[in-house]
Amino acid sequence: MTLATFIQAMPKVELHVHLEGSIRPETLLALAQRHQVDLPARTVEGLRAWYTFTDFPHFIEIYLAVSSCLRTPDDIELIAREFLAGQAAQNIRYSEVTYTPYTHYLLRKLPFPEQLAALERARAWAEAEMGVTMGLVLDIPRSVSAQEGLLTAEWAIGAMGEGVVALGLGGPEVDNPPEKFKAAFDRAWAAGLPSVPHAGETVGPESIWGALRALHAVRIGHGVRCLEDPALVAELRERQIPLEVSPTSNVCLKVFPHLAAHALPRLLQEGLYVTLNSDDPPMFNTTLTEEYLHVANTFHLGRETLEQLTLNAVRASLLPASTRLELEQQFLGEFARLRVEHLL
Length: 344
Fold this sequence. Notes:
Number of domains: 1
Number of strands: 8
Number of helices: 16
Order of helices and strands: HEHHHHEHHEHEHEHEHEHHEHHH
Radius of gyration: 19 Å
Strand content: 5-15%
Oligomer: single chain
Structural class: alpha/beta
Strand order of the largest sheet: 1-2-3-4
CATH architecture: Alpha-Beta Barrel
CATH topology: TIM Barrel
Largest sheet: 4 strands, parallel
């Protein structure tokens, strides 16, 4: 068994992946045609070219255009089913999926309960048919007002028993510091809902400090720019705050010029808690499996490191403690079996 075969076969967990960013070009075209939405391209090849990002604002422009093709609860259920089927094909047993309900409420006046019901139908289908599942991270887009952010927080708190596992914060970091949304995250924290904001992607260490101090963050989405501040590295290492690292995304959005320049090896050398993720897979022409393959080949990571990255994701997940422990034991057993096969 080659290392590539091992990576493809091993069980996985993914903690940082956006549902709206997981829409396949073929599905996006079908939705655009269904709802008579004009996109900048009308072929799969054209969409892939359109996805060649120039900067983070261009990425946001594309993300909003994709979201504009989602008009009904059935559309949301469709993309969630397709996403979960894709995760099952990669042996990703559990995903914590970032979803931005306010965008669809703002653009199409889709009531949040209808959005949530569509996602829950997809989750129940995937559990019954493919044995995979997901938890939802409802995220606040940074571009909205603090008051609008409170609405997402209230939705998330009210849906804690219906698949929602955390409150997130996404979108452009520039001019939108974490502190802007302190009230929303204070409310979630008081209700017992974990905080997993994006920080330290396009803005440096101050964004991560803000997420830790103002937003009660238990994980950091991206966080790769922590290395610019030794005191922050020490804080993250001491507290073992998990970082949701997405290497290909970072390269596509110009955080690093190419994969070989990525901070992943140094993050590991510094003793930081790292998980591997795909972020917006079709938009970055990747998958979680390919992320493992790329970093293994680029940085010469062995099977032990790949297993550790996977177990890190299991342990950093927001599953109930008993479920998390059971999943970890399953993974350890499967790794042992694959290790034997790997040596044959």
